[in-house]
Amino acid sequence: MIQTVLTILWVVFSTIVFGTAAILAAPFSRTGNFVHLIARTWGYSILVASRIRVSVLGQENFDPSRSYIFMSNHQSNFDIPVLLAHLRCQFRWLAKAELFRIPIFGRGMRGAGYIPIDRSDRRAAMESLQQAAETIRNGTSVMIFPEGTRSRDGVLRSFKKGGFILAVDAGVPIVPVLICGTFQIMPRSSLRIRSGRVCVQILEPIETAGYGRKQKNELLEAVRSRMLEAQQQLSEGTPC
């Protein structure tokens, strides 16, 4: 319980400090790259404060100079600092609009060029996908949680289709990312935070060439199958 309280206090304090820094830096960062580096530092500080150790496999599976759509499973609130701190490239989140309404945190996200998506408004959601496609065409990757929300039991949920529409429209590869361990650190149904070890596997890119909007379901299944296979290997004890 003491660790949980101390971690929450650090999250609040660091969000105020780094969020304010991001807001102040945003007007001077035309690309948003520097603001994203501030966000990376914020994420890393939370992992240190929480005594969470992260192992990463597969950094060689993507070229940081290219743009991709990264798609990660979503087990916990700690997925966000894990990905920020350990994915070695510039990327922008495509995230639910509710996060952008959080004071300071939301302003900082906008300052970094992260993109809100309002699932309750189809027209606004499609506009967000168009904005994300433009970000990708300008050379910056996008990160998506295709499940749309955190898993309740750690098992991979069904995927939303919006990210796959974006992928075929932008014409860039999808890089599946599998996170293992954050569910045990802080499951969706609990406020308790535990220290522990997290494994991140960056899988080989899946090309979107040859897929159109009519084939988006086939692309969705290809990505989800790849992630399920990797998750099964981890559950059987494949080292990370």
Structure, explained:
This protein is of the alpha/beta class and 240 residues long. It has a 7-stranded mixed beta sheet, sandwiched between helices. The longest helix has 24 residues, at 2-25. The chain has a single domain, classed as Glycerol-3-phosphate (1)-acyltransferase (3-Layer(aba) Sandwich). The protein has 8 helices and 7 strands; from the N terminus they run ααββαβαβαβαβαβα. The mean pLDDT is 88. The protein has helices spanning 2-25, 33-50, 79-86, 105-111, 122-137, 162-170, 182-185, 216-235, and strands spanning 52-57, 69-72, 91-96, 115-117, 141-144, 174-180, 196-202.
Domain tally: 1
**Using only CA atoms, what is the Rg?**
17 Å
Spans of at least 5 consecutive residues with low confidence: none
Question: What is the H/E string?
Answer: HHEEHEHEHEHEHEH
User: Architecture, CATH level 2?
Assistant: 3-Layer(aba) Sandwich
* CATH top level assignment: Alpha Beta
Structural class of the secondary elements?
Answer: alpha/beta
Q: What share of the residues lie within helices?
A: 40-55%
**CATH level-4 homologous superfamily:** Glycerol-3-phosphate (1)-acyltransferase
Going across the biggest sheet, name each strand in turn: 1-7-6-2-5-3-4
- The fraction of residues assigned to DSSP E strands is 15-25%
Count of helix runs:
8
The major beta sheet can be summarized as: 7 strands, mixed
According to CATH, what is the topology?
A: Glycerol-3-phosphate (1)-acyltransferase
Number of E strands: 7
For the terminal residues, how far apart are their CA atoms?
29 Å
Q: What is the 3D shape?
A: globular
Question: Mean of residue pLDDT?
Answer: 88
